[in-house]
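Every protein is a chain of amino acids, and every chain bends into a shape of its own. The fold becomes a row of whole numbers, each drawn from a learned catalogue of backbone shapes. The protein below has been through that process, and both of its lines are reproduced in full.
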Amino acid sequence: MNRKFVNTMVRRYLRFDREHPFIFLSAILAFLGIAIGVTVLIIAMAIMNGMEKEFEKRLFVMNYPLTIYPKVRGAIDDELLETLENKFIDLKFSPYMQSQVLVRNGGTLKGGLMFGIDPEREKEVNEVFAKAYNKSFGKYGVIIGKPLARELNIDIGDKIMFLFSKMEPAGLSMMPLAKRFRVEGLFRSGLNAYDESYYYTSFRSLEKILKRQPGQYDGIHIVSENPMHDIGLIRSELPSTVGIVGWWQQNGNFFAAMQMEKRALFIVLMLIILIASLNIVSSLLMTVMNRRNEVALLLSLGASKKEILQIFFRLGLIIGVGGVVVGTLLGLGGMELLKHFDIISLPEDVYGTSRLPLDLDWSDFVSIIVGAFIITLLSSFYPAKKASQIDSLKVLRNE
């Protein structure tokens, strides 16, 4: 194959043809369509990954990597806690008690969970709590979320009423147990679902209200660097009356839905590139049809069908690959622009951050490039094949 001849013809066909301007315009539109498609796909995948990891980080903090729960009442106590701490010295444990409560301030009622915890242990496993906790819990002191405090119009030092699910006799009827707590700290996790429904107090306060025995817990939160590995090791040490669950299992449906949405978005946006590639097909087919006489003449002068196929195949590749390269540069540039400038701001109370999170996975990046390249190859091959199948004798005879 004469490479010099092929390269010369490719350069010639890439030039603007005054006699057939629509062919050149179609090629430009194909180039721009693929570039825009790749740009949008890169930025969209980066946003999806960024949002997923942002939610994962928030949920990881408030849900804890691992949680031990009782299958029967009273199965978790100080003895089990001590055994686990001696066995897994590299892990951090924080036992807790919990009760469903309603918080009331004036005419406003909000439901949630009150946790009785050891503040010193909880600080080690929950950085959100650690930032809100000062020195020690006073008598019936509580730490609540900032959004809840704002909604109830209260601040540190104010008192609020909690209604517990535990019932107590009141004359001839039963009434929910009510207790007034003093707000001693405010936390902010970034997710309102947790900030408005999680409340922290001391073991001493909750034990006294619920008349619980000291050393009896409703669960143990565990921090691990590799929870997916450690969950099996811990499970083997637990009695049959106790179970363990990881944060990814507690929120499996949420992340499965995000993954499905991400795949659907990838397919839909890849269709943009596929539609743009149709312009490559139409542009090359128009070029072939308008230059049939020239192609037939080249074949009659000794050009091989392989050389003709290479000419038009390279034309399609230059348009398509050029669009992929430009789209990649625009996509990466757009990501850097969105990272450093607040072009798009998010409502922090909904998403947990005011900045648009961006994080492009290498696997997604490679999938985009490979997918776009395969579409370009397929779009370039058909017109090139048709050009190489031109019957030179028939064309020249008709002319």
Notes: Residues 21-63 form the longest helix (43 residues). DSSP finds 16 helices and eleven strands in the chain. The chain has two domains: 3-59+254-398, 66-223.
